[in-house]
Amino acid sequence: MIGHAPIPARPYFLRTVLTLDLSTFHPLITERLVLRELRPIDAEQVFAMRSDPVVMRHVARPLARSIEDAAELIAKIRGIQAANDGAQWAITLKGDDAFIGIIGFWRMQKEHYRAELGYTLMRAHWGLGLMSEAIPVVVDHGFSTLGFHSIEAITSPENGASMRVLEKNGFTREAHFKENFFWEGKFLDSVHFGRLALARMRAR
Fold first, then answer.
1. Helices 130-144 and 160-168, axial angle in degrees (round to 10)
2. What per-residue confidence (pLDDT) applies to 15?
């Protein structure tokens, strides 16, 4: 009857702003990894990673100079998560709770249902395919649980390993910006990758 038809549910992509509740931490598990909450006791390992100039070569952040620097970074990350503005996981090996890397979402654009994926791994664990194992479960959590519509990742054009792992995990190279940010006295390029929730659905 005209005027009495049910009103369709509002699609998720028409909501004004994505609402997140990150107060309850969700560990993620893969074949070889446990992705857990970052803890203050991880400061020594975080310092070892963030003070390694080889690991940080393509990361536009200052090298950690002390364990206190690492402790401050952990506290900052935990504060961002408490404010529902980011989600980071400590990467650990199954059967060994020691921190070996970090992966997660930051620079969330809730009004656009979008977040940036970032990750770093300690050098001793490179070349084992661990990041290719961590990325899919984190990305799937971002789409299916957190409700993102798109996820981006930004890397240096000189970081071939990072670009390969992104492409292997369904990210598409979308742009190469010339000298678009300034770091340590130089203007640097950046390569932007993206992946849509729809791409995840088509892959299934």
1. 50
2. 57
Within 10 angstroms of residue 136's Cβ, the number of other Cβ atoms is 15
Q: Are the beta carbons of 165 and 132 closer than 8 angstroms?
A: yes
Residue 125 structure tokens: 């664990």
- Classify 199 as helix, strand or coil: helix
Q: Which residues of the chain have pLDDT under 70?
A: 1-15, 199-204
In sequence order, which ranges of the chain are alpha helices (DSSP H)? Answer: 43-50, 67-82, 130-144, 160-168, 197-203
* pLDDT for the residue 200: 53
What local confidence, expressed as pLDDT, does residue 23 receive?
81
Which residue is associated with the tokens 């010339």? 178
What span, in angstroms and rounded, lies between the C-alpha atoms of 1 and 157? 60
Buried b (16+ CB within 10 A) or exposed e, 28-59: bebeebbbbebeeebbebbbbbbbbeebbebe
pLDDT tens digit sequence for 81-139: 999 999 999 999 999 999 999 999 988 999 999 999 999 999 999 999 999 999 999 99
Distance, CA of 159 to CA of 174 (rounded, Å)? 16
CA distance 183 to 34: 34
Pair of tokens at residue 129: 């395919």
